[in-house]
Each structure stands twice: as C-alpha cells, then as structure tokens.
Amino acid sequence: MRDGNEAAAGAALLSWYDAQARVMPWRVGPADRAAGVRPDPYHVWLSEVMLQQTTVAAVRDYFRRFTARWPGVADLAAAEDGAVMAEWAGLGYYARARNLLKCARAVAAAGGRFPETAEGLRALPGIGPYTAAAVAAIAFDEPAVVVDGNVERVVARLWAVETPMPAAKPALIDRAGRLTPRRRPGDHAQAMMDLGATICTPRNPACALCPVSDFCAAKAQGIAAELPRKTPKPEKPTRFGLAYVAFAPDGGVLLERRPDKGLLGGMLGFPGSDWAETAPAPCPPLAADWTPLSHEVRHTFTHFHLRLRVFVAQTEGEGFTPKSEFSPAALPTVMRKVWDLAEAGALPRRGDAPAPRDI
Ligand code: SF4
C-alpha cells in the first residue's frame, strides 16, 4: 500500500464489514452498533481470552456454556476454581483459565466494571497487550492498535513487508496503527480479524474477493501467499512420561490435581512421572499389579511432543474418585487420551502408536 492510502483502504474495509461481518455469539454486528447497541465488555473479554490460540468454531460452544453458567463477571469471580477448570477442559492452554479467574476476581473486587482503556486493562492479571487493545477497541471504541497473527498477515501483505517474522513485528504494528481509524475503531478491529480469517488466509488468500485488493502491494507483486515470511523454527523436542490409571472394583478412579504452576496447572490428571527427555523410571502411585498397555499416547504441546506410556491396574486404596463424580470431559485433552486408551484396554486407536519395547 502506498503511504496516504490508509484512509481509503480503511473505508473500503469498513464497507465490506458492514455487508459481510461474521455473526458470533459475543459480537454486536455493525448495524446494531450503528443503532447504539454496545457490546458487553465481559463477553468481549471472555471471547478474546478463549480465542487466543483457538479457532472461532471451537470457542462458540465454550462461550455459550460459560455465559449460561456465569452470566456476568461477578458470577465468574464467585465460581469455584475446579468448576471453571472443568468447563475449560479441552480448550487447551490452561494458564488462560487460571488467569481468567484471577482477572474476573480483580474486576469484581474493583466494583465489577472493566477499565475502558487499553492501559487500564493491561493492569489486570492475565491481560496482555493484544487482549487489552482488542477489548478497549471492541467494547469501548478506543482507537487502540489491535495486532494478532491475522492482522500481522494482512498488514504484511498490504505493504509487502518482506522482513521475516518476528523481526517484522514493530514495522507491522506501526502500519496497523496507521490503518486504525479514529471513527469506528471497534468495527475496524473486527473487520481486520474477519478479513484475515476468511479472505486473507495463510495459504490461499482470496484476493479476487478482497475489499482492499486495490491497495495491496503483495497482490500487485504476486507474492501474497509467501507473506509474512518466517524465520524457520527449530524442531520440537520429544519428551517421555508414564501415566498410571488405577481402577477400583466399584468403578472409582485414582486422580490427582496437578500443581497450580506449570503445564496443565490446576487440572485433573492421572498420577505419573515428570515428562523428561529420556524414558523415566517406574513410579507407580501405589503398590498394585500394574500392566503396561501395548500402545502409547502421543500429544503435541506448543514446545514439545509428548509420548506417554500408560499402565493400568485393578486395585483398592485411599483417595479414589467415585465413578459417579468422575467425568472424562473434565480432563485436559492429553489426560483424556490416557483415559480413552486405558478404558479401551489398550486396543489400538487412531493417533496412538505402538510403544517401543525399551520405553
Ligand atoms: Fe490479502 Fe490478497 Fe487482500 Fe492483499 S489482496 S490483503 S493479499 S486477500
């Protein structure tokens, strides 16, 4: 895009958004907004936290369930930690759920109203620059510069920025700022999100349908799909671990809550080893006749692949969770895979792999 064209490109984007805005349970569409309907800051904040690292399709049901159970920020603030973690199960990146609760409690303690500026929102626990800017723009129409991966991609293409990420970030934030209008900044932020999610997609940008194609330098140069360029990432390492699933004769299961700090912090799981770079030594949580399953669980986290060897035993003892109180849906995804494998008695399932003999 040539300097000086920002206002025209922004206007074209908003006209497109007026006609094509996606309907979402947390969104106030452009027509309602123009008629004076304001978004609920609680809904905007909750959806933005849920949408970090997660798709809109995956978030819809979680958002509906959360807002049905906790209709306002004070309701969420008063919720039990375990109940919130259980509702969050399956959405991943569990530190978000713990921070969500901390933030809700901070807002409730301060009178139940969210700060109306990005700067004020930034002071709340768990709110980073992106979420602060998004909530300030969408809920309060502050002309904050909202830059996530979608926006970075659109801006890199509009200006044909060839510097690889993440070094290009400051330049992209600067250009996104030039594109942000003082009028309707909330609609502009959502229009950029929609454009990045539906038209200016990572692999096959639909430039023929794009409302800002006349301004787009990458399209003009025929390099749209190549941008933004990326510095190659190092390969993810693999870690190994053991998980123990103990069944009581009455169907009870031995569970433990993981420590608050660290990966899957505060979530329910099965006892087991640390996840290490080499195969860990056996560490059963109680004496029993443990049977190793013939298949292992594989799961990929942000920074590493995990291979979990699963052991099962029928036994009795203290601290079992009764069958009536156990719901696999309350487990994080990796632990649900462990449960599925243990319950199936090691029958091979898609995505599980035979365990090598030496683990
Ligand atoms: Fe993205 Fe193509 Fe639109 Fe440029 S013209 S912003 S590359 S969809």
Automatic annotation (TrEMBL):
PANTHER family: ADENINE DNA GLYCOSYLASE (PTHR42944). The lineage of its organism: Bacteria, Pseudomonadati, Pseudomonadota, Alphaproteobacteria, Rhodobacterales. Belongs to the Nth/MutY family. It is an enzyme of class 3 (hydrolase). The gene is mutY. Keywords: 4Fe-4S, DNA damage, DNA repair, Glycosidase, Hydrolase, Iron, Iron-sulfur, Metal-binding. GO terms for molecular function: 4 iron, 4 sulfur cluster binding; 8-oxo-7,8-dihydroguanine DNA N-glycosylase activity; adenine/guanine mispair binding; metal ion binding; oxidized purine DNA binding; purine-specific mismatch base pair DNA N-glycosylase activity. Binds 1 [4Fe-4S] cluster. Adenine glycosylase active on G-A mispairs. MutY also corrects error-prone DNA synthesis past GO lesions which are due to the oxidatively damaged form of guanine: 7,8-dihydro-8-oxoguanine (8-oxo-dGTP). Its EC number is 3.2.2.31. It comes from the Bacteria. Residues 50-198 form the HhH-GPD domain. Its cofactor is [4Fe-4S] cluster. One of its GO terms (biological process) is base-excision repair. SMART domains: ENDO3c, FES. It catalyses: Hydrolyzes free adenine bases from 7,8-dihydro-8-oxoguanine:adenine mismatched double-stranded DNA, leaving an apurinic site. This is Adenine DNA glycosylase.
